[in-house]
């Protein structure tokens, strides 16, 4: 008597049980044949096909009942389909849907920060703070390029400090001019008796 692999014994037991349930098994169980191994593969193939048919039937019945009619996004195109291939699409989508900040690979964090950089600089009121912010951003971009941890490549460019300070000053001056124009327009719209005397 040879020692049998426990997995093979378990599979043989399941197959013989299935045969008995289906009425295919011979009544004499003491008689073992070499056909058990090929029959076991056939039983697995049959059960896989059987399972696929059961799943397909369940899906069709659910469709007839209307279980899939009110799902979110029904009748709309799948978002992000047809654009350029981005291997990190799932990371970006998770960050956007959860509105997460400060998470993800440095390359993605720097891309997001680069897109919002001008608005962040516009919140600063001193030129020294603007210079420090640009220098800090450049330092982090260079450090991310040196990383050896893998992940997506860092394609975010560094920024010229003097050009950023100049652009910040121009935007600030334009905001001041626009604010004065809006206040003058608002003053002109007021009746003459409500205008400030000056």
Description:
This protein has 198 residues and is mainly α. The protein has helices at residues 6-22, 36-65, 89-98, 106-115, 117-122, 127-145, 161-189. It has a domain at 104-194. 61% of the residues lie in helices and 0% in strands. The longest helix is centred in the N-terminal third of the chain and has 30 residues, at 36-65. The relative contact order is 0.05. The model has no long low-confidence stretch (mean pLDDT 79).
Number of helices: 7
* Rg over CA atoms: 35 Å
- Name the helicity range: 55-70%
Strand share of the residues?
Answer: under 5%
As residue ranges, the low-confidence spans are none
| Mean of pLDDT | 79
Order of helices and strands: HHHHHHH
Termini distance?
Answer: 115 Å
The overall strand count is 0
Structural class: mainly alpha
The profile of the biggest β sheet is:
none
Oligomerization status of the protein chains:
single chain
Q: Which of globular, elongated, flat, extended, rod-shaped describes the shape?
A: elongated
């Amino acid at each position: 008597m040879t020692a049998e692999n426990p997995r093979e014994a378990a599979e043989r037991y399941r197959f013989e049980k299935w045969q008995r349930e289906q009425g295919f098994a011979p009544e004499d169980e003491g008689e073992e044949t070499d056909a058990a191994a090929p029959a076991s593969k056939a039983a697995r193939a049959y059960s896989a096909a059987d399972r696929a048919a059961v799943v397909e039937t369940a899906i069709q019945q659910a469709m007839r009942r209307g279980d899939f009619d009110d799902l979110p996004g029904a009748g709309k195109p799948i978002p992000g389909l047809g654009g350029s291939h981005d291997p990190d699409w799932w990371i970006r989508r998770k960050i956007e849907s959860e509105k997460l900040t400060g998470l993800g690979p440095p390359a993605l964090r720097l891309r997001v920060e680069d897109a919002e950089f001008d608005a962040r600089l516009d919140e600063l009121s001193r030129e020294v703070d603007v210079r420090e912010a640009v220098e800090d951003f450049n330092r982090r971009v260079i450090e991310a390029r040196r990383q050896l941890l893998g992940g997506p490549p860092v394609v975010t460019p560094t920024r010229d400090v003097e050009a950023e300070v100049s652009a910040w000053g121009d935007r600030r001056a334009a905001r001041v001019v626009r604010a004065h124009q809006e206040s003058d327009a608002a003053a002109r719209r007021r009746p003459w008796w409500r205008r400030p005397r000056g």
